[in-house]
Amino acid sequence: MTAEIESIIDTLLREGLDDWLPVDTLLWHVREAFPAPPDRFKNLVPAVLHRLLADRLMMVGDLGESGFEPWEGTPEKTVERVIAGLETLGWEPLGGFCWLADTPQGAQRASGPEPRFKPPAA
């Protein structure tokens, strides 16, 4: 499972180089990596999000007049806030809840010569 989570993190960071990502993108990648059982992804989203925040790779925030406006708080409180919001929206935010943005550390990791995790050759 750790390899899959690292792959999701690398993918999100690469996608985040171009633009801010709706939280839907995180949900989609976790669902794709862990398709069965259907609700398993709900248990994994907090772990992936916490890693992104605790390792200072991405920030969570809103889009406002000044552009991306990061939320304040610890990684734990931010994860709690995101999960509570997702629960309220039935885990279908449709681009209308919160956004993810690469930090400088996340952008550096994403723009390195190759991802940290390489899937095994098939």
Automatic annotation (TrEMBL):
Write the protein's name.
Answer: Uncharacterized protein
Q: What species is given as this protein's source?
A: Actinocorallia aurantiaca
- Upper taxonomic lineage: Bacteria, Bacillati, Actinomycetota, Actinomycetes, Streptosporangiales
